[in-house]
Amino acid sequence: FVWKDTYVFVWDCAAGLADVAHPVPATKEHKVAADKDATGRVTGPEMCQAAARPGGGWVAYMWWKPVKAEGAKQLAYAKKISRKVTYMLSVEGQPYEVGAGVYNDTLKVEDLNALLKQ
Questions:
Q1: Degrees (nearest 5) of the Cα angle 12, 109, 87?
Q2: What's the pLDDT at 72?
Q3: Cα 54 to chain center, whole Å?
Q4: Section 29-56 average pLDDT
Q5: Which CATH number fits domain 2-116: 3.40.50.150, 3.40.50.10210, 3.30.450.20, 3.30.1130.10?
């Protein structure tokens, strides 16, 4: 699922695989432990930990903003780097975690995670 500059992706944290399903083909099936944001910060384990919390969790990191060229069937990453805030959730009864995020400079992860506890 892709809408504007956001999309849904699937991980398999137990198998150590990030992006089992992802709309940008170049990112598919890489190691969670090697998942780094655009600044080089390792984010994979943090995203798996967020997904494992009851009700899931939010993580913020710097990421390349996706673009879709006119007539293209798939997304690709642009060189522009933006702050992305992603929600991760384990899928009950399945070995997968699902994530989706927005590019936003002002959302606070602490506030979003607090809302999950209400």
A1: 30
A2: 56
A3: 18
A4: 90
A5: 3.30.450.20
Q: Which residue in the block uniquely carries the two structure tokens 């506030």?
A: 111
Spans of all domains in the chain? 2-116
Question: What Å distances lie between residue 57 and 8, 66, 71, 109, 118, CA to CA?
Answer: 15, 22, 35, 9, 13
Model pTM above 0.85: no
Task: Strands of 4-54 (E only): list them.
Answer: 6-12, 17-21, 30-31
Give the H/E segment covering residue 111.
Answer: helix 109-116
From residue 101, alpha-carbon distances to 2, 23, 37, 111 in Å are: 11, 13, 14, 15
Which residue has better confidence, 47 or 32? 47
**In angstroms, how far is CA 13 from the centroid of its own chain?**
12
Residues 53-104 pLDDT 10s: 999 999 999 988 776 666 555 555 566 888 999 999 999 999 999 999 998 9
